[in-house]
Specification:
- The complex is a heterodimer of chains A (270) and B (225).
- Chain A has 270 residues and is of the alpha+beta class.
- Chain A has 2 domains: 74 residues, Glutaredoxin (3-Layer(aba) Sandwich), CATH 3.40.30.10; 135 residues, Glutathione S-transferase Yfyf (Class Pi), Chain A, domain 2 (Up-down Bundle).
- In chain A, 53% of the residues lie in helices and 7% in strands.
- Chain A contains 11 helices and 5 strands.
- In chain A, strand 2, helix 2 and strand 3 form a beta-alpha-beta unit.
- Chain A is globular.
- Chain B has 225 residues and is α+β, with helices and mostly antiparallel strands.
- Chain B folds into 2 domains: 76 residues, Glutaredoxin (3-Layer(aba) Sandwich), CATH 3.40.30; 129 residues, Glutathione S-transferase Yfyf (Class Pi), Chain A, domain 2, CATH 1.20.1050.10.
- Helices cover 57% and strands 8% of the residues of chain B.
- Chain B contains 10 helices and 4 strands, in the order E-H-E-H-E-E-H-H-H-H-H-H-H-H.
- In chain B, strands 2-1-3-4 form a 4-stranded mixed β-sheet, with helices on one face.
- In chain B, helix 5 crosses helix 8.
- Chain B starts with 5 loop residues before the first strand and ends with a helix.
- The chains are: A alpha+beta (270), B alpha+beta (225).
- At the A-B interface, strand 5, helix 4 and helix 5 of A face strand 4, helix 3 and helix 4 of B.
Amino acid sequence: MLTSKATSDPRLPSNIFLHSNFRENTERMAGDLELKLLGSWASPFAMRARIALNLKGVGYELLKEVSGTKSELLLKSNPVYKKIPVLIHHGKPICESMIIVQYIDEVWAAAGPSILPSDPYERAIARFWIVYIDDKWFPSSLRTLRGLNEEAKAEAEEQLANALPLLEDAFPKCSKGKDFFGGETIGYLDIALGCYLGWIKAIEKMTGIKALDEAKTPTLVGWAERFCSGDAVKEVMPEADELIEFTKLIQAIMNAAPGRQNMHVSKNDR
Amino acid sequence: MAKAEVKLLGTWSSPFVLRIKWALKMKGVEYDFIEEDLQNKSPLLLKYNPVHKKVPVLVHEGKPIAESLVILEYMDETWKENPILPEDPYQRAMARFWSKFGEEKCLPSIWRVFISQGENTEEALVSASENLKILEGELKGKKFFNGETLGFADISLGWIVNMVILLEEIMELKMIDDQRYPSLSAWMKNFSNFPGIRDSFPPQERMLTKYRILREALLATRGTN
């Protein structure tokens, strides 16, 4: 349940997030590494960084940004975009989710499986699809489908319907018969696409549109199930119902008091 | 240098293709250039970039790579001579960040200046200048975004040099002056003078003609705006 908290500040570093398999080492490491992530529970982009850190078994401090507000740390760490996620490593900020993921893969190359493929051509293919997903339309389509403009929704639905079969088609070439785009383990493209699955499920429930359809893209449906049940993913993937509540809350705020940006919406245990 | 087969599908004027030409030159890679007519796309282009049907496409040993920034990363991983990305992971993240900023913010805002007229130009210039100030701030004290030598971010942002020169000439205004943007102005000169860069610039007169016509056509279709 979402709660509105008037008193305690969720931006206080009360949440040392540790991947359960590596608790002993990372308890010590969290302080040594000086690794913080500015994020929020509903953000698919923040989720990308968290999945990557989980895959590497790296401990970090999660600083939760509150919807509708931007902390001083965020404004200082990402003055250009003022957006999450921001990874702060030894005091140095890294911005843009897929740049963060690649940074994590490079710094902790020796820990855990490789996130990016090792072959340059396969890396190029993964990067190509990530540009397709992120730069073209995915985030804006999902935002539109959550909204109230019916005409725009129809167009967004069509875009999604055109794009997913391409990814369905790309899957066997990338995975080479294994479980993920990245092969045996979750990789760069899996993270880039998979982070949207919570929102996709929420939208399917809200609109009745079947975005990921067993009949049209069965491979992606299978992949989505495997992705969401992965250890590195399940604890950071929001539930569809939580996201629906969140959307309704935001819409209610927008309708009730246009321009009022300060509603404090947080989810405690994330 | 590598004897492997390298082809570049592109056009003579595309700034995105130019990035790849610069990188190929810096790395001393020989290649075949295939000029595409974007009004009449070749079967080769449609085969190599079925998703977007755009240039540039780099074809290496028969395998196509599309999206210019993706191609640059591939090139740096494949041809180790004159690396364009730094070794340090943090510096690499910064290079990628500035490259993305150029693409997502600077390019559209400068383009909006180019396709504006009258009062809208003033407004568009203000918007573009916000982004240019950010670049100026990042450059301060550095010869290139990459430091002493040209790198990934410089190649990614290099379109600014050509685009701004064209825009300033066609629209008869000054967008990057050395009073407001001393570092950026110096960077434009340093970039142009870097070995191999200027030779690859498309012919200036031909570009001016093309972009003048393009601008007129775009302004005409937007009506009296």
